[in-house]
Amino acid sequence: MTEMSLMEVRNLRKHYPVRGGIFGRQRDTVKAVEDVSFHLRSGETLGLVGESGCGKSTLGRTVMRLEEPTDGDVLFEGQDLAHASATELFALRRNVQMIFQDPYSSLNPRITIGEAIREPLDIHRLGTTAERRDRVDELLSAVGLSPTVQNRYPHEFSGGQRQRVGVARSLALRPRVVIADEPVSALDVSVQGQVLNLLVELQQEMGLTYLFISHDLSVVEYLSERVAVMYLGRIVEIGSRESIYAAPAHPYSRALLESVPIADPRRRRDRVPVLGETPSAVNPPSGCAFHPRCPFAVDACRQAVPKLEPAGHSTDTDHMAACIRQGEI
Amino acid sequence: MPLLEVEDLRTEFHTEDGVVRAVDGVSFQVDSGKILGIVGESGCGKSVSAMSVMRLIPDPPGRIAGGRVLWKGQDLLSIDADEMPQIRGREMAMIFQDPMTSLNPVFTIGRQLGEVLDKRFGLCGEAADERMIEVLGHVGIADADQRLAQYPHELSGGMKQRIMIAMALLCKPDLLIADEPTTALDVTVQAQILQLMKQLQKDSGTAIILITHDMGVVAETCDDVVVMYAGKVVESCGVFGLFAGPRHPYTRGLLDSILQSGRSKDEPVPTIEGVVPSLLDPPTGCRFADRCARVETQCRQQDPPLLELEEGHRVACHIPLDGV
Q1: Which of A174, A193, A221 finishes a domain?
Q2: Which candidate in A49, A187, A190, A215 is best for mutational testing of the B interface (most B CBs within 10 A)?
């Protein structure tokens, strides 16, 4: 285990069977997460970017063990979540919590938001009734809501306020790691900024470590110290935020960054957008899965899956890319 | 004469809780062959404005309560409802965020595109097929002859949006209204679709209304911009003028909250505090007053009119910013 890393994911795989026919026999396998390894350092944010269907959400859920991993390890301070028994997992989960995208569906409409925030404390039987009540007040204040709102129901809140409730609930157990899956994607820009500022404040105050999953490259750039780029179930590039954004080594990372619209009409350009769309994960292309869309693809790219290797031109020793031509292009 | 001129448009919805004035006195215009962006956050009335122009507001509960929609000089709100289908589809076309809602799931792509050609140009048979394959090629669809035999569910989101644009190309409309056409798509596919729309404007001279919440998309695609807030237009301007010197505090706030590249969490994101007012019972005066740092007494008493402060730059604010 790397020194200082709080959490380490090793060769994680999550495969789903594709069934068909009248007997529902397994016909195929979707490799939603394939041989993914990374670590989280205490107090940092690792941004995980990729387009829809790349497996980033499945990866987050598998790390939390909301999905059973097919193979691989998920170590939190050396303890393996992936192979933990139910009792061990229950205890370990106090350290790793999750924030979801949709603040509308992740809260039960029938319970008040005070109850929703208290629920994890009840489940884990933490503190006396009075202590739990105080903790709910404290959490509401921490996320910028008045403790007086705790008897209200989710429908009485706006999207941004509901996401604040979601954040408060995820912090109830004082976790060390928070996995945030597209937490600001459903919010309008003016509200998105408020929630991002809140996440940063809480991180600084509580020393939280974030795995921040998003399709939005600007949000990931803003929040992260390190960034991992996923394509069809695999991490194709990982490195410091500066390396990924200023000197991306993988052609897919480049294409992704070049596709982001720039909010300045003076910098408008006629782009040559990357061709085609992400292929199906059921039958991914051979070799490097990006090769059919890649302007630099050669025969060798169709043969073997490229491994993550140090990005040669980078001064960042953590910068790795899975492209056999990264040195030449 | 502008191609489309919307004047003091008012559209309301009757709900159990009362009347929601979703569009409350909106004016803008679209010039021939130009791309107009209508930008604003959810609930600002940008989609309802577009649907009103097309007269596609479900009635009840909706109702166009006032204003004029001058299409090539003719008021679409006063013509007979039976005449609208002639204009929609021939002269104006619309594409939506979710292309699934506009494609019929039980017919093949070929049949749906063919219907357009048949109705609009009386074209069918082989000539129609050739034209369809040609247009699908234009929108970047390979194996077009196979695609024609497929059903919508067999295609990806980006592919369906391409089909919708192909349909618009076949109609050769004078105006295409695109309501968040790339919001549901991946960023690499979004770049392709935006490029395609610019191509359409250049090659066929089609004017486009692009409705979006994304200032980046506006900056890269539009000639003119209308900014809406809580059912009203707060600012309208050419795209360069707007980004260089917004004069409404809301527009300023929107532009400031964009996460420009290079920004990091060492500095907080500038935000617009507070929330959008309810349109059931909007405050008197300026609707942005409660969230505005420049607010004065006058702002809470009088609704600011949309005034032309410089040529082509209209602002609805009692205390506008200096610009530039």
Answers
A1: A174
A2: A190
Q: A-side interface with B, Cβ within 8 Å?
A: 45, 51-52, 158, 160, 188-194, 196-197, 200, 215, 217-219, 221-223, 241, 245, 255-256, 258-268, 270-271, 273-275, 277-278
Answer yes or no: do A112 and A125 share one domain: yes
Query: A177 has which bridge partners?
Result: A96, A209
How far is it, in rounded angstroms, from Cα A85 to Cα A63? 15
Same domain for A248 and A307, yes or no, is yes
Angle between helices A189-206 and B249-256 (to 10 degrees): 50
Instruction: Report the candidate in B81, B61, B60, B78 with the shortest Cα–Cα distance to residue B69.
Output: B78
Name residues whose C-beta falls within 8 Å of residue B167's C-beta, 6 or more positions apart in sequence. B93, B112, B113, B116
Give residue-wise pLDDT tens across range B175-191.
999 998 888 778 888 88
Nearest CB to A268; choose among B220, B264, B270: B220
Which sign does the torsion angle of CA A2, A252, A189, A52 carry?
Answer: negative
> Do A88 and A121 reside in the same domain of the chain?
no
Cβ neighbours, 10 Å, residue A36: 25
Nearest C-alpha in A relative to B212: A188
Closest listed residue to residue A237, CA positions, set A316, A308, A318: A308
Domains recognised in chain B with CATH numbers? 4-229 (3.40.50.300), 240-324 (no CATH)
- Determine the distance in angstroms separating the CA of A239 from the nearest CA of chain B, rounded to an integer: 16
Count of pairs with CB atoms under 8 A, one residue in A, one in B: 124
Range of the domain at A48: 5-95+176-321
Within this chain, do residues A218 and A289 fall inside the same structural domain, yes or no? yes
Q: How many domains does chain A have?
A: 2
Report chain B's C-alpha Rg in angstroms.
21
Return the CATH number at A185. 3.40.50.300
Q: What are A107-142's pLDDT values in tens digits? A: 888 999 999 999 999 999 999 999 999 999 999 999
- Residue A329 lies inside a defined structural domain of this protein: no
Q: For residues A193 and A191, what is the distance between their CA atoms, to the nearest angstrom? A: 5
- Whether residue A277 and residue B188 make contact (CB cut-off 8 A), yes or no, is yes
**pLDDT tens, position by position, B230-240:** 999 999 999 99
- Indicate left, alpha or beta for B16 from its phi (over 0: left) and psi (-120 to 50: alpha): alpha
Cβ atoms within 10 Å of A286's Cβ, excluding its own: 13
Tokens standing for residue B321: 């910013």
- Number of Cβ within 10 Å of residue B46's Cβ equals 28
Contact A256 B188 (CB under 8 A): yes
Same domain, A192 and A292: yes
Of A193, A255, A264, the CB nearest to B257: A193
Residue A247 and residue A121 share a domain: no
pLDDT of residue A2: 47
> ipTM score of the complex?
0.85
What backbone torsions phi and psi does residue A92 show, to the nearest 5 degrees? -65, -35
Three-point CA angle A92, A93, A97, nearest 5° = 140
Q: Is B107 exposed, middle or buried (0-12, 13-18, 19+ CB in 10 A)?
A: middle
Please name which of B243, B92, B282, B65 lies closest in space to residue B175, comparing C-alpha atoms.
B92
Among A149, A174, A199, the domain-final residue is A174
Rounded distance, CA B256 to CA B245, Å? 12
Clarify whether residues A170 and A25 are in a common domain. no
Domain check: are A197 and A229 in the same one? yes
pLDDT digits (tens, 9 = 90+) for A9-64: 999 999 998 887 777 788 788 899 999 999 999 999 999 999 888 899 999 999 99
